[in-house]
Predict the 3D structure of the following.
Amino acid sequence: MDNMQANGNALESAKQQEIIEELSKQYALEEEKTGKKKTYHIVTFGCQMNSRDSEKISGILKQIGYEETDSEDADFILYNTCTVRENANNKVYGHLGYVGKLKEKNPDMLIAICGCMMQEPQAVERIKEKYKFVDIIFGTHNIFKLAELLRTRLLSDRVVIDLWKDTDMIVEDLPSDRKYSFKAGVNIMYGCNNFCSYCIVPYVRGRERSRNPEDIIAEIKDLASDGVVEVMLLGQNVNSYGKNLEKPMTFAMLLREIEKIDGIERIRFMTSHPKDLSQELIDVMKDSKKICKHLHLPLQSGSTRLLKIMNRRYTKEGYLDLVDRIRTAIPDISLTTDIIVGFPGETEEDFQETLDVVEKACYESAFTFLYSKRTGTPAAAMENQVEESVAKERFDRLLKLVKKCSAKAAGKDQNTVQKVLVEEINTQNPNLLTGRLSNNLLVHFKGDESLIGKIVDVYLEESKGFYYMGKLMEQ
Ligand code: SF4
């Protein structure tokens, strides 16, 4: 990002701040008249990137003068959409059907939609045609413009649609309403240049652009001074961080800088792409006191032939060598992955290669997916789509093996004392607290809710497979 761009972004940030200010005065007057605040509700679909965008949207709406409500029957309702799977869109249409009825009773209600689904022209056409009551439509590239779009809607009384094909803008310093007080997601980059042949993300999230390290460091320092002890660094492919910066910086170098920030005790990151995961990063993770012992390393397939057709740009051998180097350098690392079964053209031999990698990598856990055709991706147009029954049968075999491997890894920390970040009161049993280990596994134990947000020592009494039951140690 050069100075010109940086100035442009700063000007845009100031402009949006001004509009937020202007609207907040307007809303304050209205509140005086009506005696009540306008309410808003956000429905977020999809990944952690979307959750982070929703925190920014919530921050802007709160500064304008809205208050959050947990019902869709609000004065302002926003759907932050996902489109990674074909059926993700159907969920949104379902919500619109319901909220359309609410708007008949409350015509002043405003309905907005943003996120990845809105980057698909056919989805926008369908909404314009079938859901004419929608007031504001925007995408993934201009979340920061919400206040301006809202003002335009209020002034013009017509549907506001503002969709960008792509952008090189990164607008900083806008309000954000974080879900947790003790942990926070921090975007380090946006977009993806990898174009894996089954994935829609590069078409809806645009080209890779990294935030300036100074802005990331400043944000994390602010978070630490607010009491945040754990940060999750977010990007579609964090390993290619820094390539578009005027002064290129590697992800490993960025991690070293974040490690120096007082108050931050834990650093997590996702998502990694095996083709860009450097030895430098492995060394930084090995020497770090703060980077958590968990790495999510999507495999997708164990067949080098299929990985080529998926455009993943690594081989089975390269991936296993990487796993080897990671496990040697960080023996107590927890490795998790994503695997697709039934990708077009997948043969039994290809699938055996996947099973072989799972056996050798012995993941602590794995997200396994049946391939789902995604219109707009190269794979969707491929001839030899795998029969559903064949894919399903393979999926069941894979699941069995994944469970066998994770059972082997489960419980290895039983009867040890581990550091746990206390996250919440257990949702099943209010007498228990739930916390998270560095390797991302959960622990449930007795303790006072005043410990939420703290890192405490817990004795892991019993492994229950994907979680532990524990006992709080004297603090
Ligand atoms: S790395 Fe591949 S799978 Fe991940 S977001 Fe980019 S294109 Fe999609």
